[in-house]
Amino acid sequence: MAINSSPSTSQPPTRTLEPTNTDEPTNTSTHTHTPNPTETLAPTPAATPTIESAESNNRILARVVEVVDGNTIKVEIDDREQTVRYIGVSTPSMGGVFSSPEWLATEATEANRQLVENYLVYLEEDGSAPFALGEILRHVFLSDGTFVNEELIRLGYARVDPDTADTRYYDRLLTAQQQAEQAGHGIWGPTPTPTPTDTPEPTRTPWPISTPHPQNTPTTIPTYTPIPSNTPSVDSTNLPTPSHTPYVAITSTSPPTAQSCTITASVSDENPSQNQEVYVYGQLRCGGLGIEGAAMNVTWNYKTTTSTCTNTTDSGGTATCSRSIGYATSGYYVQLDVTITWGDQSYRTTTGFTPQ
Fold first, then answer.
1. What is the pLDDT of residue 41?
2. 3-class DSSP state for residue 171?
3. DSSP element (H, E) containing 109
4. Beta-sheet strands, E only, within the chain
5. Strand intervals (E) in 189-288
6. Do 184 and 262 reside in the same domain of the chain?
7. Which terminus in the chain has less CB density within 10 A, N or C?
8. Helix (H, G, I), strand (E, B), or coil: what is residue 152?
């Protein structure tokens, strides 16, 4: 539905956020719309939208019913629920079944929640935005004129998506990103150094060793009673004791050496669609046998960024991990560097895909 220039219904209270700095920057950005999670919000009178756009009459009013992640929400429009992704905004991934959230992904989602959850927002379409499977791409504004896409970037919880360079507010988003980068907000602050952990030694099943056969106990030879005859008696103490050769334990050959190991990798789809989940399969075999318990790490080399996923090989020596490719650049080959580590040896190979 179209939005009147002066809504008559009362709006929820204005929310304000403060940027999170990871290294206490000396230059603190200020904004009239700054959330403070610990602040008690008092209702304020409804404000007339002050959105600077000639297309303001084309904006649609919707209520936010759920915050999915840092740049995705679900809204209700005319009693229908619709998933909306912010145009031009790329936030850290919340991960998936086989991967953990990226750094600041949880904080970005929380910042988005404080900005828009349960609020009425204005959705503005942009015909230059790229296609999104199952979602609609929109610029999102609050009733006080706050541009939510820009605010998340200004606070340092997101960066500008380079694939949206021809959209309406791209230059405005770039300016907000430059300000966040100069101030060291959020993702532009120092990246925390992970605490190194020792790679556990993989559990190896011992090779079977046959059990030696027990030695036979010599049979006791009875002492014969002399026969009263002219035949001389038999002296049993001088009889030879029979000897038995015991069974010898047989040991199997040694386990395969590192020099006999091979690594292979493949993907579930070499030409995936935007936002599709792509699975990576890696396998380590040594001496013809799959190696269980080896650690697999996969680096995804996109055009403008990288990400990772990890897993451990099963009894067949195979490990699987996956990621959603989001809005990966169409036609650009994404190389995946696959490393499997077993003990103190690492084995590497590559695979990849080209998004449609």
1. 36
2. helix
3. helix 105-116
4. 60-69, 72-77, 80-86, 89-90, 120-124, 136-141, 159-160, 261-267, 277-286, 289-290, 295-301, 306-312, 318-324, 334-342, 345-353
5. 261-267, 277-286
6. no
7. N
8. helix
Domain count, the chain: 2
Q: Is the pLDDT of residue 38 over 50?
A: no
Answer with the one of 173, 188, 203 that is the final residue of a domain.
188
* Higher local confidence (pLDDT), 93 or 131: 93
Q: What is the pTM of this model?
A: 0.43
Q: What's the CA gap between 77 and 120, in Å, rounded?
A: 10
**Are 268 and 176 in the same domain?**
no
Query: Is the Cα dihedral 225, 226, 232, 237 positive or negative?
Result: positive
Burial 62-83 (b: 16+ CB within 10 A, else e): bebeebbbbbbbebeeeeeebe
DSSP structure class, residue 185: B
Beta strands at 306-312 and 295-301: parallel, antiparallel or unpaired? antiparallel
Is residue 129 in a domain? Answer: yes
Tell me, yes or no, whether 39 lies in a domain.
Answer: no
Q: Out of 138, 158, 188, pick the residue that ends a domain.
A: 188
Q: Which residues make beta-bridge pairs with 61?
A: 122
Domain containing residue 347: 258-353
Q: Where residue 258 falls among pLDDT bands split at 50, 70, 90? A: low
CATH number at residue 74: 2.40.50.90
**Burial (0-12, 13-18, 19+ Cβ within 10 Å), 26:** exposed
Task: Indicate which CATH number applies to the domain containing 347.
Answer: 2.60.40.10
Report the range of poorest mean pLDDT among 48-52, 225-229, 241-245.
Answer: 48-52
